[in-house]
């Protein structure tokens, strides 16, 4: 079977969850120093992602039975919040890796052992399951065919976040019983081409552009029964919304820090302000209290949702997973709205000079506005309303 190139150096093993947070905080502080330049120049963070892999961060959720740490949802959420506060593009790049990694457990023991060992060695998972078409999400136009010993695929994918940095590029297809399968393509396989054509106004360096497959062969050993992940409320599917919430919260927290710093160090008092400093104006104090309240509330909801996911993983019941999903929807809405609000109010509370290119403060709004569009918050509000008002659970394909 085709195997990827081995990592140049074996990735480090993080011994406990405290070490994970300490490592991520150390790396994130260094990543922050280059965030503005990367945003301006659209420079992809290859070195930064390589450092995260080498440090063992991409392997923290490998199950313990395969030699991993089996990190909690609480720790995963913290990792993404910390990284996204420093640079939300770096924060978003591993999102699909952590969401799709549990898929290996749905395969045979040999498949699971092989792929988990590759992750422990420093490999990562990208993404190529979306297509840039007007068809309903989950409808694919690729040409997928069963052949002797595996499958072949030809098609054009988009929103390929993480693929440019990954050894494995997964996409979703259907078997002859219309069940979802996940195919893990070796990024070095003949017929794979990555195009860095992501031109979004925000999240500029996620490399969320095009992946082309031209008669690419995928061995059966690299194909997994993704339908075993269950519906959107199952514990294996809950990390996606939690991670997106943590990315939004990281954006909100960094924007809030920049807002506070600018008010205290850059602003001059308005004509009608009776005080010597802008930060003493009552309206500024009240407005800062408003936006900071939203950010702190979102943080608490995120922590609560992560704890609910951990309980759902331990419990294993559908009811526990459902309520963890509802809690995560609450967190996603709060984190997304907080990121949008503080990144917008940053300018209203500081003035025209804060829009100068030298500060690049608009990156917070661009990143928040772009990332919060990943899946519509209006539908999360609908599902929450329909459940708490009418007792109707979200459908099996709903993204709550």
TrEMBL record:
InterPro entries noted in UniProt: Acyl-CoA_DH_C, Acyl-CoA_Oxase/DH_mid-dom_sf, AcylCo_DH-like_C, AcylCoA_DH/ox_N, AcylCoA_DH/ox_N_sf, AcylCoA_DH/oxidase_NM_dom_sf, S04_starv_induced_SfnB
Top-rank taxon: Bacteria
Keyword Oxidoreductase found: yes
Gene3D superfamilies documented for this protein: Acyl-CoA dehydrogenase/oxidase, N-terminal domain, Butyryl-CoA Dehydrogenase, subunit A, domain 2, Butyryl-CoA Dehydrogenase, subunit A, domain 3
Keywords from the named record: Oxidoreductase
Acyl-CoA dehydrogenase/oxidase N-terminal domain boundaries: 16-123
Acyl-CoA dehydrogenase C-terminal domain residues: 242-375
Keyword Oxidoreductase listed: yes
PANTHER family (UniProt xref): ACYL-COA DEHYDROGENASE, ISOVALERYL-COA DEHYDROGENASE, MITOCHONDRIAL-RELATED
Protein's UniProt name: SfnB family sulfur acquisition oxidoreductase
